[in-house]
Structure formats: structure tokens, C-alpha cells
Amino acid sequence: MYNTASPLSKWLVHRYRSPWKPPNALASKLWQSVCKTASAIKSCCNFKITQSAPISLRWDHWCNSLSVSEILGNNCYDAIPDLLLNELTSTSSWVFPVNFPSNVRDICEKFSVAADQGQCLLWKQSANVKFNNFIDEFYSNSPNCTWYKLIWPKKYIIKHAVFMWLTVNGGLKTADALKIRNIVVPDLCSLCLLHNETVKHLFFECHYTFAIISKLIPGLNSFLLRPNLMQILDWMHLEFKGKADFKNFYKVVISCALYHIWKERNSRRFGNSAICHTTLLLSIKRNIFDKVMSWKNSWLLLENL
Ligand SMILES: [Zn+2]
Q1: Ion ligand 1: residue ranges with CB closer than 5 A
Q2: Do residues 196 and 188 touch, judged by C-beta distance below 8 A?
Q3: pLDDT above 80 (res 304)
């Protein structure tokens, strides 16, 4: 509507005037949604008065992030002419019709009209906006996730990394998680049939899963107690400091192991088929080989498997 002149933008301006004008009862659901979003992001939208700007004199907050009625301090919108600023400008100066309210005129004259024809609606003073800027604003109130880099390495396999993320966030539907939701399933771990199934047990207190992960990452044998996923990731962070390739490689290894272990758990629970940890270890290694072979220095990384 503001930055691109098109038949649609002209029609929207003609029909609705501004997304900051309260929508009437006949407005479409889409337009009502546009107005709701515009109201939520009002503080991020700034205006630059250009010659062709279809900025609404009455509804838009073009006076240093305030609307004319907010400056006048009376919510009397009817006293402000329902015009667009481009109807009041001509070659970088203001042109007012006769009988134009003097108090509104005084406000307008405090602002200069830019000579260029550039964009008139800015995102936080910037005309070059990327989709990322909107995403950043959308999540600006969310707390910073300090461990996201541990979960999402550079060359991850998304199908595998998602399971690592689910594990850390409590998203895997293990027996204990289902119990909380009043879903009754067998309690025992399908991999060792000795302990109750929890995320903590599966990764990696269970002797079946620890046998696999400790073969893939021999350094884990030095732990006094069996580590959980976050402890392994944290350990790797220090162990491979300054060796980005190795760090990335082992994260891919862990996520791959996690994916295959969870798949094996499901095959045992729902498919009545089981393989031993050595066979599973071989399929994990094969999967890692397939992925890592194309990497730079792959031979250096793969000789550690
Ligand atoms: Zn177990």
C-alpha cells in the first residue's frame, strides 16, 4: 500500500484508507487481520514524507511516530481532513486547500517533504528490510536460547537434528511422558528391558545405547557416570575447542545415533523386530559415512569412527 504503487495498493487505500484506521464491521477478515498486525507493530513502522506518499493525514502516525490527533490531544478525528499527504504536497513543499484547519496546517509545516520518490514506510528507520527482521521482532520477547548452537551444527542432517532438539525439549513420547498424559503404555525400556523408559535413561543411561555412543565417541568412556545428552554436548564443546570440523562432525554423529536409537526403540515397540547394538552401530556408521564423505577433510574425520 505504501511502498509499491499497484492497482491493488490503490484499491486498498481507496477502500480502507490506512491499516491504522479501526476497521469497520464490513471489512473482510483478511483486512481485520492486517489491521491487528499493523497495530501490534506500530512502534516499528516509521514514515518518511515523500511527494507520492499515500500516507493518511488522519490515521497514520507520521508526525515523529505520533498521529495528528495524538499531537492535538483530543481524539476528535472528524476535525482532521481525511486526506492523503500526497494530496497536500507538490515538489517537496506543502500545498493546502482553502479552509484547511490552521492547527493541522501548523503541524504539517513542521515536517519537510523529501524530494525523492523513495519508500515512505520504513521498518525502524530502514528502507532495506529482510524477512529476518520481522522474525527477529516477532521473537524479540522470547528468552535467548543459549544452547541452540549445540543442537544445530553447521552441516546437520535435519531429520536427525530434530530428534536431538526434541530430546532436549522433552518432546519425545517416552513411556514416562505418555504417563503424564494419562496414556498407559509398557513402562520398561524396550532396549534393555531392565529399567523404566525415560529420556534420561534412553540417552544414555541404558547399557544398550551407551554401548553404541561410547563406540562412536570413545572419549565418553572416561566419564565416571553415564552422561546425558547435554553433558555430552557440553563436554564436546570444551574437548574440541578450536577444532570446528571435529565439533561439527561429532554433533552429526550424536544426532545420527539418537535418530537410529529412537527408530530401533519404535521398531521394538511397534514392529516386533529387534537388532543388536553392534548391527545398529554399523547402520549408524554407514549413515554417517554417506553424509560425511562429501565433506572437506572427510578422511581425517572418518578415521575416528
Ligand atoms: Zn534401557
Answers
A1: 189, 191-192, 206
A2: yes
A3: no
> Ligand 1 centre from 196 Cα, in Å?
7
Compute the distance between CA of residue 29 and CA of residue 141 in angstroms, rounded to an integer: 27
Cell, residue 226 = 553415564
Q: Which of 244, 237, 263 minimizes the C-alpha distance to 160?
A: 263
Q: Where are the domains of the chain?
A: 7-138, 148-302
- Tell how far the Cα of 63 is from the centroid of ligand 1, in angstroms: 66
Q: Report the alpha-carbon distance of residue 208 to residue 109 in Å, rounded.
A: 77
Considering only CA atoms, which of 57, 54, 49 is closest in space to residue 81? 57
pLDDT digits (tens, 9 = 90+) for 228-262: 999 999 898 888 888 888 888 999 999 999 999 99
Instruction: Give the pLDDT band (50/70/90) at residue 203.
Output: very high
* Distance between Cα 171 and ligand 1 center (Å): 19
